[in-house]
Each structure stands twice: as structure tokens, then as C-alpha cells.
Write a structure and sequence with these properties.
heterodimer; A: mainly alpha; MetI-like fold; flat; B: mainly alpha; 9 helices
Chain lengths: 216, 221
């Protein structure tokens, strides 16, 4: 039983590497897109605000699995051909972006209005206000939930196995298909996911404590 | 592009989606009902228990929260019957999984809710001579439920979305219905547009209804 796992270990490790790679891509891309869209939501002109609001509420209102199938099967139907890997990354990124938008909106909203007004009073431009006044303070509010949300990206990445991408989840299913050792392998997989995500949530908790000095 | 939208085939097979939506709701309702029982029992136990019990409950909560739902679904449906002598349908297996899953999230919700019950209320209960059990039933739990109602409805809404994972073990809920139509009619864009609308609409109706309930039972200030 253990021998089976040991024998399959290199294969499982490859799957795990893919899980981490997908998660990393999704986390980085959604951070960029989410911050840009979040700024658009808070400071943009009204049509942009509406567009971002509708995007975010729609994405967060449907199951991530539906989003993955929609992107994976829907894009080729309208003539956009992506490798399944990139379709999966795109779908997960859209999902995560909507979350980042909400984290950013919440973080910026938590900064007292006086800060922004004071920055205006001393003549800072919009970009300077964001860069020197709002973002440094909002950052502390943004970071803990964001890191905690990284676990969602790792957990969500397990769904790409349904598109035939050999991530950890799919690797485990394939090894089970060969060895019929379902229970040990699922438990092994659960422990691997647990280790990664638990480390992330510990980091988030620690950061939260570290930044808890903010005065209201 | 060259893709002409044609919803006719979707309407012809709409029973798959409608039945799927009802099953999704059913799965979510049954699972949260069992999850609430699990959550309540473990949360009440947790706040009054010693270190060992606390560690065990915390381990259950952290394990479930940090593992992908799809893996838990596979584990219970394909894994468990290989080591334990039980047989169950995909649907029963999924309900069991989602109940355990929601239970873990609800333990956390109820535990922090119990801690948020004002000290004065418990003291007042003591002062009028209620036993610890009476204080739990008549003072702590009602107040805790009012405090946790918003978190409870959020958990229910996300469980409703999580039921889509049941499609991976062929439980014919809404996402499964969408895939069936996708594979059998190839009206891909249409079916996912309709299903997106169905999830959104149901979600907002549920949200609206739950907010009404929350307003009715809002914790007194």
C-alpha cells in the first residue's frame, strides 16, 4: 500500500508541481487584474463602476465549476482556441479577480475619508494620494484576507482535473485507476493539500496579528 | 465569430435544468440542516470541553477547510466504501460529504457566536436560578442564533453553489444538467448563459428572503 504511493511518488510530485504552478499563475494574474479593477470600482467613472460591479457580482454568484466549463467549452465555440491549461487558468483567474476586487474595495473603504481629504489639501495628485496615502494604509487591511483567499486558489485548482489536466487531483485519480488503492491515495492527497493551505492560513493569521495595531 | 445563438434546444431540454435546480436546492437544504446539527453540537461541546476534545474538533474543522471539496467528494464516494463495508448512492454520499463540509464551517460560526453572547445575559440567567442546561437552551443559544444568522445565510448561499461539485459523481443537479445539454446538443454558450442566469437568480432570491428573515430576528441592541 505504502509501496504503491512511493512508486507513484514522482508522478504525484509532477501533479503537485502543476497544482502549485496553476495556483501561482492565478494568484499573480488575479492580483494585478483585481487591483486595477478594484481601483476602477472605487474611483472610476460611473459606467466603469457599474461594469466592475456587474462582473464581480456575476462571477461570485455562480459556482466556480460552471465558470470553468463555460470558459473551457464556450471559448472554442465562439472561435477562441486556448490550450486547456490556459482556459483553466483564465477561468480560475476570473473567479479570483472578483474576490480581489472585493478585498480591495473593503480595504480602501476602511480608510477614513479625512486621510484622502488631507492629502488633497496638501496638493497631492490622484496618483500620489493613492501611492503615498491610501494604498500604504489599505495594504494592511488587504493582506490578511488576501493571503487567506490564496487557499481558495489552491483548492479551486483541483477542479482543473475535470478538464483532463494532470494536476495533483488528476494524478491521484490516475494512480487509483491503476492500483485501486483509493483510500490511501485520497488521504495522501488530502494531507498534501492540507499542508499547503494550512501553512497559508497560519501565515494569514500571523499577519493579521502583526497588523492589528491599526487604530480606528 | 460565426456563432449564432439558438436557445430552442435549451428550452426543449429545460426539464433537465429545472429538475437540476430543484435537486441543487434540495442538496443544499438537507446538507445545511445536518451541518447545523453538527455545528451546534460541536460548538457547544467545544466551548465547555477540555484540551483534548478541543484539539480533535479543531483538527476536524481545519482539515475540512483546507482540503478541496472535490477531493472530499471523491474520498467519501470512491474511497470510503473500499475500506468500510457500506454502500450508498452518489446522492447520499454527496449529502454526507456536504454536511460534514458545512458542519466544519458552522462550528466556527457558532463557536464565535457563543463567545459573543453578552456576559450579562448569562449572569442574569444565573441570577434567576436557571440551571446551566436551561441557560444554554433559553439564553445562550437563542442569542447566539440571532448573532450568527447573517453568517448562517452566507454559508447556505455558498453551499448552494458548492452543490455543483456533485456533478463530478453524476448527481443530476443543475451543473450536471448543463453538461448533459452541452454534450448532447452542443448549444454550449446558450446552456451556460441560461445556467448562469439560473444560479444568479436563485442566489439573489435566496439572499433577499434570508435578509428578510435576518431583519425579523435581528439581535436586539
Amino acid at each position: 500500500m505504502l509501496g504503491q504511493i512511493l512508486y507513484a511518488l514522482p508522478f504525484l510530485a509532477e501533479g503537485f508541481a502543476l497544482t502549485l504552478w496553476v495556483s501561482l499563475l492565478v494568484v499573480v494574474l488575479s492580483l494585478i487584474a483585481g487591483v486595477l479593477m478594484g481601483v476602477g470600482l472605487v474611483y472610476g467613472p460611473v459606467p466603469l463602476r457599474w461594469a466592475v460591479r456587474i462582473f464581480s457580482d456575476t462571477i461570485r454568484g455562480i459556482p466556480i465549476l460552471v465558470l470553468i466549463f463555460f470558459v473551457y467549452y464556450g471559448l472554442p465555440a465562439v472561435g477562441v482556441h486556448l490550450q486547456s491549461f490556459w482556459a483553466a487558468v483564465l477561468a480560475l483567474t476570473l473567479f479570483k479577480t472578483a474576490q480581489v476586487v472585493e478585498y480591495l474595495r473593503g480595504a480602501v473603504a476602511s480608510i477614513p475619508k479625512g486621510q484622502s481629504e488631507a492629502a488633497m489639501a496638501i496638493g497631492l495628485t490622484f496618483r500620489q494620494r493613492l501611492a503615498y496615502v491610501i494604498f500604504p494604509q489599505a495594504f494592511r487591511r488587504f493582506l490578511p484576507p488576501w493571503i487567506n483567499g490564496v487557499t481558495d486558489a489552491v483548492k479551486g485548482s483541483a477542479l482543473v482535473s475535470l478538464l483532463g489536466i494532470t494536476d495533483l487531483m488528476q494524478a491521484i485519480n490516475q494512480v487509483i485507476g491503476r492500483t485501486y488503492e483509493a483510500m490511501p491515495l485520497y488521504i495522501f492527497g488530502a494531507l498534501v493539500y492540507f499542508a499547503v493551505n494550512y501553512a497559508l492560513s497560519l501565515a494569514s493569521r500571523r499577519l493579521e496579528r502583526r497588523f492589528s495595531f491599526i487604530r480606528e | 465569430m460565426g456563432y449564432a445563438l439558438n436557445f430552442n434546444l435549451i428550452w426543449r431540454h429545460f426539464d433537465k435544468l429545472w429538475g437540476g435546480l430543484l435537486l441543487s436546492l434540495e442538496l443544499a437544504v438537507i446538507s445545511i440542516a445536518i451541518g447545523i446539527v453538527i455545528g451546534l453540537v460541536l460548538a457547544v461541546w467545544y466551548v465547555s470541553a477540555g484540551r483534548v476534545v478541543r484539539a480533535v474538533i479543531a483538527a476536524y474543522v481545519e482539515f475540512i477547510r483546507n482540503v478541496p471539496l472535490i477531493l472530499l467528494v471523491y474520498l467519501v464516494f470512491y474511497g470510503l466504501p473500499t475500506v468500510v463495508d457500506i454502500a450508498y448512492s452518489a446522492q447520499t454520499s454527496f449529502i454526507a460529504t456536504l454536511s460534514l463540509y458545512s458542519g466544519a464551517y458552522l462550528v466556527e460560526v457558532f463557536r464565535s457566536g457563543l463567545e459573543a453572547v453578552p456576559r450579562g445575559q448569562i449572569d442574569a440567567g444565573k441570577a434567576i436560578g436557571l440551571t446551566p442546561w436551561q441557560r444554554l437552551i433559553h439564553v445562550r443559544l437563542p442569542t447566539m442564533l440571532r448573532i450568527t444568522l447573517p453568517a448562517l445565510s452566507n454559508t447556505f448561499l455558498s453551499l448552494f453553489k458548492d452543490t455543483s461539485v456533485a456533478s463530478v459523481i453524476s448527481v443530476p443537479e443543475l451543473t450536471y444538467g448543463a453538461q448533459w445539454i452541452n454534450f448532447n446538443t452542443f448549444r454550449i454558450v446558450e446552456v451556460y448563459l441560461v445556467v448562469t442566469a439560473m444560479y444568479l437568480l436563485t442566489g439573489y432570491v435566496l439572499l433577499f428572503a434570508l435578509r428578510l428573515v435576518e431583519r425579523r430576528f435581528r439581535a436586539a441592541r
